[in-house]
Specification:
By secondary structure, the protein is α/β, with parallel strands linked by helices. It has helices at about 5-15, 125-130, 135-145, 165-180, 200-215, 230-240, 245-255, 270-275, 285-290, 310-315, 340-355, 370-375, 375-395, and strands spanning about 55-60, 70-80, 85-95, 105-110, 145-150, 190-195, 220-225, 330-335, 360-365. It folds into 3 domains: about 1-35, no CATH class; about 35-230 and about 320-395, Rossmann fold; about 240-315, 434 Repressor (Amino-terminal Domain). It contains 13 helices and 9 strands. Strands 1-2-3-5-4-6-7-8-9 form a 9-stranded mixed beta sheet, sandwiched between helices. The termini are far apart. Mean pLDDT is about 90; it is low at about 1-25.
């Protein structure tokens, strides 16, 4: 297997104006270089002519998931937050063992909490490189024989908590998997959504927008835990504290996704330097590198969280404006130190008021990171029961 340096050298040669004939015969090993340097992640020139979820390209990759699987990366057309076309990637993982359970094989879109500002942190790259941070839920589902799709829902700009954009990437990824014959899923399959923390935000947004954005898709339900739902309150909670890096993460993503908002004009010299330093970071880099930062110290305005340029974006990317039609399982530790349970409680109330069926479970004691592991079996049991109920209902209507 070629090294990353060798692969980058091959790529540089392949992209030069004087490419030798032999270079075209040396394929880039899938996952050998980060997405920014990998042509697979580059959008086709005519992407705007593609339908939502239409496949642009596919390739098989190696995946060390602890379970024998076949894995493919699929690139496809989706839309950003302003409904402009962009290329997204999902990885579909199919156990090689035949499905022996009752009813159809469960199929889940699992939203991994990437929480990053760099494409080198994308789940697709992690899977292809042989690791997947926060991939315990994926491994457990695969061990049960389920098919799992893992979208890079932060998109090509690595944008954190950009709600509509992440929903589009998730739902169009499901459309793409349905078109991809080798996965054996098909366009009429019944899906479920699952995610925790940053992945729960993308899950919630996909569930919330599905009736209007992808009404042809069928879902058994969605499970989500530790969901960051109310961004205005959450950013106040983060500001100046040990988890202030999440505000840096949000600010970088919003500056990329919404350049028209003029967030750069809010920053002082220190703020610009901080965003530049954090601009290609995975979540651990951010957590260790940028604690105890106050946004006011990075800004030319006294209270940037209340400035309309940022405050309006935080409100628009918060969950709760409409209710999902699929059943929801929402779980949260009451003592969550990162995402206060109160804002998740408010989301449940909003969704129920809109007619959603929501099972709300609160664990009296728990820490944010451990909650995802400890509660995982119950969340997946909910999905398993929902798949079974959907299969029974479908059989009754035949």
């Amino acid at each position: 297997m070629i090294t990353r340096v060798a692969a980058a050298a091959i790529l540089a040669i392949a992209c030069s104006a004087t490419t030798p004939a032999w270079a075209d015969e040396v394929p880039l090993v899938a996952g050998s270089v980060a997405p920014d340097a990998d042509p697979f992640y580059a959008p086709p020139a005519d992407l705007a002519s593609y339908r939502h979820g239409q496949l642009a390209s596919s390739r098989e990759v190696a995946a060390n998931m602890g379970v024998p699987v076949r894995a493919w990366q699929l690139s496809y057309r989706t839309d950003n937050s302003r409904d402009l076309p962009e290329l997204a990637v999902t990885t579909v993982l199919v156990p090689t063992a035949p499905w022996s359970g009752p009813g159809p094989r469960p199929i889940v879109s699992e939203q991994i909490p990437e929480d990053s500002t760099g494409t080198r942190c994308a789940p697709s790259y992690g899977i292809a490189k042989g690791y997947l941070k926060s991939g315990e839920a994926v491994t457990r589902m695969l061990a049960q024989g389920w098919v799992v799709a893992v979208p890079d829902f932060e998109g090509p700009k690595s944008t954190f908590l950009t709600g509509p954009q992440s929903a589009h990437a998730v739902l169009d990824g499901i459309r793409a998997v349905g078109q991809f014959g080798p996965a054996g899923v098909g366009p009429g399959a019944v899906w479920a959504l699952d995610g925790y923390s940053g992945g729960a935000a993308a899950t919630g947004w996909a569930a919330q927008l599905q009736p209007s954005y992808a009404p042809e898709l069928t879902f058994a339900g969605a499970a989500m835990g530790g969901v960051p739902a109310d961004l205005p309150s959450l950013t106040v909670h983060f500001d100046g504290g040990i988890f202030s890096s999440y505000n840096i993460d949000i600010l970088i993503g919003y500056e990329r996704e919404f350049p028209e908002a003029g967030l750069d004009a809010m920053l002082n010299e220190r703020g610009r330097a901080t965003l530049a330093a954090a601009g290609n970071s995975c979540v651990d880099d951010l957590l260790y590198g940028f604690p105890f930062r106050r946004l006011a110290d990075l800004s030319v305005v006294a209270d940037p969280l209340r400035d309309p340029r940022l405050a309006d974006l935080l409100r628009d990317n918060s969950l709760g404006a409409s209710a999902p039609t699929m059943p929801i399982y929402d779980y949260h530790a009451s003592t969550d130190e990162i995402v206060p349970v109160s804002q998740s409680d408010n989301l449940v109330a909003q969704w129920r008021a809109g007619g959603a069926a929501v099972v709300s479970v609160r664990d009296p004691i728990g820490e944010h990171g451990l909650e995802s592991i400890q509660h995982m079996p119950r969340a997946q049991e909910f999905l398993q029961n929902r798949f079974a109920a959907t299969a029974v209902a479908a059989a009754a209507h035949r």
